[in-house]
Design a protein that fits this description.
The chain has 11 helices and 19 strands. The protein is α/β, with parallel strands linked by helices. The longest helix has 17 residues.
Length: 371
Amino acid sequence: MAHSPKKLNMKAVIFAGGIGTRLWPLSREQTPKQFEKMINGKSTLQLTIDRLRPEFPWENIYISTGKRYKNIVAKQLPQIPAKNIIGEPVRRDLAGAVGYMSAIVAKKSPDDPFVILWSDHVMEKVAKFKHILQAGGEFISKNKNKFLFLGHKPRFANQNLGWIEMGKQIEKINGFAIHKFKSWKYRPNIQLARQFYKSGHHVWNPGYWVVTPGFVLEQYKKFMPQMYKKLLNLQTSFGTSTHEAELEKVYPTFEKISFDDAILEKLEQDKAVVLPADFGWADVGTWQALKEAQQKGIKDNVTKGEVYLEGCEDCLVHNQGGKQLVVGADLSELVIVNTKDVLLVCSKESMKTIKTIVSKFKENKKYKKYT
């Protein structure tokens, strides 16, 4: 696997529209987490694109984001064609977003594979991931009526992720096994997560899949017929002078429902397969996850900005408060985030509480400006 994968006859759609309340106060409604330059001077969106280049030509990469963030995306990724930066006028959950992007890509390439990716993840084994995408693309090119889920080999019994149960191996492509799909479970309790981890038949679900956009639209026709008709209208007008007006009118009428609930949960078992692999993936959607993704050892501290720690272990200290120095002494398992207008100090286990706080702030006139 030392050689580089060839240029891929695939499209890639990266979703970059989430607000990311669990990375507050760095991530705000005006500047979500995927645009903040958190790792090696780059945003996780930029790192996501780096993982696709140069095998994916710029014109084959699409970004799905909120309308208000299109300029941020264009500034961070000037090489992406402007027509490939797609802005949703309102948030309507992922069934609408995935359907809309599938309709756009299917207008020109309904039968070519495309991969769905997320903009707030990190990955260690980039070269291997490129080979995995190549294998997935080759499989879908020959099996256009399948969803191929990329499963990540679990590192521990994680109860905060979805898990996929695999069946027997049915094929091998470029050294990667393709398995039958059996079932999945989102956020199991710790006892179940431990069973999954020990079983050898379960993998983490990072939410990556390879499929043809034409096949995705077929599932909308079958399971979401009303949304499907609207998607066809948007597909017809895409690329014309009337599209923006049509989008503003139609998109807000989409049912607010997740893609999992709308399509994937209803998908026939034999329509999906799983490619399990270890590509060094981590979701950095919370401060704890960001810390774990950058830790070398389990007790190591992770710092950014002007920070001095003495006698501290397993802490994340992120200082974006200008020239002010943050000093910590004899601390353990804490998250400290200092921005220009907010100082957050909490336990590394407080991620759900942060989300609750942000939700309350949005309803409070005094604190709304901090969201």
